[in-house]
Specification:
mainly alpha, 1 helix, 94% helix, rod-shaped
């Protein structure tokens, strides 16, 4: 009977450890999912920021082009 009791104890400990590892693995997977979602959000925000900056630079270039054209017209005498 002693051996059988010890086997039952060892099996119980083994199952307990498996449950603990499963719990830790589940937590790790949850954290990885959360991290992946955060990285996706950061990437989307970065893309939106770059697009906004591109729009600003294009608008600025259009305005400076108009200024450059105006300055050139002033410097070039009409013939």
């Amino acid at each position: 009977m002693k051996n059988e009791d010890r086997i039952v104890e060892l099996l119980a400990e083994s199952l307990k450890r498996q449950d603990q590892h499963s719990g830790l693995l589940s937590q790790l997977v949850d954290r990885m999912d959360k991290s992946e979602k955060q990285q996706k959000e950061y990437g989307e925000r970065m893309i939106a920021s770059v697009n906004a900056l591109t729009d600003i630079v294009q608008a600025w270039m259009e305005k400076t082009k108009k200024i450059d054209d105006f300055e050139e017209r002033i410097r070039t005498p009409e013939q």
